[in-house]
Amino acid sequence: MRRRRIIMALGAVTLARPVRAQDWPQHPVRILVGFPPGGFTDILARVIAPRLQERFGQPFVVENRPGAAGIIAAEAVAKAPPDGLMLLLAHPTAIAIAPALSQRLPYDGMAAFTPVTLLAQQPHVLLVKGDAPWRSLAELVEDARRRPGMLTYASSGVGSVQHVQGELFAAAAGIELVHVPYRGSGPTMTDLAAGNVSMVIDGVAVSAPLVESGRLRVLATSAARRLPRYPDLPTLAESGLEGVVPGSWFGLLAPAGTPPAIVQALARAATEALPTPEVARAMERASAEPGGLSPEEFAAFVRAEDARYRALAARTRISMD
Q1: pLDDT in tens, 26-74
Q2: Quick check: 118 and 295 in contact, CB under 8 A?
Q3: Largest CB tally within 10 Å, which of 159, 172, 227, 315?
Q4: Alpha helix ranges (H) inside 2-83
Q5: Residue 76 near residue 65, CB atoms below 8 Å
Q6: Cis status, amide bond into 82, omega within 30 of 0
Q7: Cα(263)–Cα(158) distance, integer angstroms
């Protein structure tokens, strides 16, 4: 009996021993993306993963789990063991927007995750079909005012950044638009180019190839300032439409309780990956600004985003319930 107690005590000591960064990972790491392939969340995960694999010597596998505007993937990570073997390529929809717009979320956006680092911030642009009749933002708004409820806008799902932007744009312009939710940016671009929806406000990365081919046309940017990629493109604010969220951010999150040593090691490795040629090219194509915040700085950033969207929810009728 005494021998058994000693063995159990030794086992407890072993289990309680802190995880050291140099011992991690001993198994492949999964990075969950809450959207289908093609959007910038997926693109960023797939250029970052090989850099992390090189750094840590284990596969970093990108796994797409689309649905519910990223909430399905976020829930999986929130409920995963805090061993650093499942991460989330986070997007504001599931982390800051959904907690503000829904009372039925299956996790707490602030308490369920450990912030690792901010990877990027991407501006969004207002897009229409390449041969659409509107040559300018003013023409689009004028048509929408003349035909209330006849024009549609696409988003990556109910409660997504694109949904919020569309509602804020309609409110600022004094127009009535019909919301058409999809499962991610890739499908929205396909249907917009096919003429199945009237417009969308979405990222540069997913839209640029279709803009360059003439299948889509950009009318404005929701960013705070003009984009170097489109220097002649006006901002919504310049056009008198204030208050539209400028774009999206992207970062790495781990489950709450992940050992600080792992979090710090991941943050350093991800930050060091940002200026590498492959990642830098993806950032440039998206007109994105690289991040590189420490875990503590990223935690403060996420708290500020949570406050921003809770304030927005209080003054709008947007809801996910």
Answers
A1: 999 999 999 889 889 999 999 999 999 999 999 999 999 998 889 999 9
A2: no
A3: 159
A4: 2-16, 40-56, 71-78
A5: yes
A6: no
A7: 31
Rounded to an integer, what distance in angstroms lies between the CA atom of residue 149 and that of residue 175?
Answer: 8
Angle subtended by helix axes 277-285 and 204-212, to nearest 10: 70
Cα distance between residue 125 and residue 315, in whole Å? 24
176-205, pLDDT tens digit by residue? 999 999 988 889 999 999 999 999 999 998
Q: How many Å apart are CA 279 and CA 301, to the nearest integer?
A: 22
* CATH value of 123-221 in 3.40.190.10, 3.30.420.40, 3.30.230.10, 3.40.50.720: 3.40.190.10
What are phi and psi for residue 302, nearest 5 degrees? -65, -40
* 263-277 b/e (C-beta count within 10 Å ≥ 16 → b): bebbbbbbbebbeee
Q: How many CB atoms lie within 10 A of CB 110?
A: 15
Beta-bridge mates of residue 89:
252
pTM of the model: 0.84
State the span(s) of the chain assigned CATH 3.40.190.10: 123-221
CA distance 188 to 198: 11
CA dihedral 238, 39, 299, 17 (to 10 degrees): -170
Helix (H), strand (E) at residue 138: helix 137-146
**C-beta atoms surrounding 255 within 10 Å:** 22
CATH superfamily of this structure's domain 20-122+247-315: Bordetella uptake gene, domain 1 (3.40.190.150)
